[in-house]
Automatic annotation (TrEMBL):
GO BP, sorted A to Z: estrogen biosynthetic process
Protein role: Retinol dehydrogenase with a clear preference for NADP. Converts all-trans-retinal to all-trans-retinol. May play a role in the regeneration of visual pigment at high light intensity.
Organism lineage string: Eukaryota, Metazoa, Chordata, Craniata, Vertebrata
Protein name, per record: Retinol dehydrogenase
PANTHER family, sorted: RETINOL DEHYDROGENASE 8-LIKE ISOFORM X1 (PTHR43391:SF1), RETINOL DEHYDROGENASE-RELATED (PTHR43391)
Catalysis performed (reactions): all-trans-retinol + NADP(+) = all-trans-retinal + NADPH + H(+)
Gene behind this protein: RDH8
Length: 304
């Protein structure tokens, strides 16, 4: 069997870049990677990371997930339009009190995180159905399983992604097309930097004093501690994405961070939703000591 063609979106930095490079360097050269980004002016870091694989097992193309024409042009430029594996990774973040976020900004986020995926799938699915093979891999998040304070809209976009894929997966399977939601916890990338920078510039005047205080004095420091204690590297997520793509029977869901799993497990442990709600509430508002001790313990486990 020849190399499988993998199209990855959002490869200018972070997880997308790492996934493209990992697949291009597959020990058994099983992949031909089309690494895409919306602004080719940002190709430098990918070219550098790709090294010898550049223009051999990895080529770089333009693709804006928010533009149907751009997606079509990219797929049309591939021989036979063949895409064996789609890695829909492009995404943006947003944190903060709802009162301070405009509907226009929320729509922009959904346009990338949710409709970006939908546009891509609409473009490649008919060909995959004709081929009777394919794998749709989507960079979701643990926030697609369990919502988190001040991540209301971002989390909603990932829930949308999860619902879309879960629904589509059954029909896709009939055409021998696999679907996988990769669900990272915190990953240290530009993403985290961008959301904190935006948060620091955020105009909190629309929020009441207590909400603004919770965001500044509790959420932001807690969130930074979580990234410091549990954050994975993009390369770790790429390694696990490689495993999922090369698996004989890829799972529908794959969480990349074992240390985060106790949090997501709470959701499945209690269908009424009370257990995760109470736990998060207590951890954030009542027991700072417990929160810090838990993170300390997880940090230790991680080192081991
Ligand atoms: N970092 C985390 O903690 C974390 C955790 C769970 C899931 N994720 C998910 O992982 C994915 C990758 O995030 P990351 O952490 O690697 O962040 P990142 O370093 O900021 O990378 C995001 C990528 O998406 C691209 N992008 C944004 N809008 C696009 C569009 N319209 N068309 C094409 N590309 C676009 C960005 O391109 P530009 O450079 O042009 O902006 C960038 O290449 C996202 O879907 C994110 O939701 C991240």
């Amino acid at each position: 069997m020849g190399a499988r063609r993998v199209l990855v979106t959002g490869c200018s930095s972070g997880i997308g870049l790492a996934v493209a490079v990992r697949l291009a360097n597959d020990e058994r050269r099983r992949f031909q990677v089309v690494a895409t980004m919306r602004d080719l002016g940002k190709r430098g870091p990918l070219e550098e990371a790709a090294g010898d694989s550049l223009n051999k097992t990895l080529e770089i193309k333009e693709l804006d997930a928010c533009c149907e024409d751009s997606i079509k042009e990219c797929v049309n430029s591939l021989s036979n339009r063949r895409v064996d594996v789609l890695v829909s990774n492009a995404g943006v973040g947003m944190i903060g009190p709802l009162e301070c976020q405009s509907i226009a900004t929320m729509k922009e986020l959904f346009d990338t995180n949710f409709f970006g995926l939908v546009r891509l799938v609409k473009e490649v699915l008919p060909d995959m159905k004709r081929q009777q093979s394919g794998h749709i891999v989507v960079m979701s998040s643990v926030m697609g399983i369990q919502g988190l304070l001040f991540n209301d809209v971002y989390s909603a976009s990932k829930f949308a992604v999860e619902g879309f894929c879960e629904s589509l997966a059954v029909q896709a399977l009939k055409f021998n097309i696999k679907t996988t939601l990769v669900e990272p916890g915190p990953v240290v990338t530009e993403f985290e930097k961008k959301v904190y920078e935006d948060a620091e510039k955020m105009d909190l005047s629309e929020a009441d004093e207590e909400t603004a205080r919770i965001f500044w004095e509790i959420y932001l420091p807690y969130s930074k501690k979580v990234f410091l204690s549990l954050g994975q590297t993009p390369e770790e997520v790429a390694e696990q994405t490689h495993k999922v793509i090369t698996a004989k029977e890829p799972p529908l869901r794959h969480q990349t961070n074992q240390l985060y799993m106790p949090m997501t497990a709470l959701k499945h442990a209690d269908p009424t939703g009370r257990l995760p709600l109470d736990t998060f509430y207590k951890m954030i508002f009542k027991h700072e000591g417990m929160f810090n001790a838990t993170l300390g313990l997880l940090r230790m486990l991680r080192k081991k």
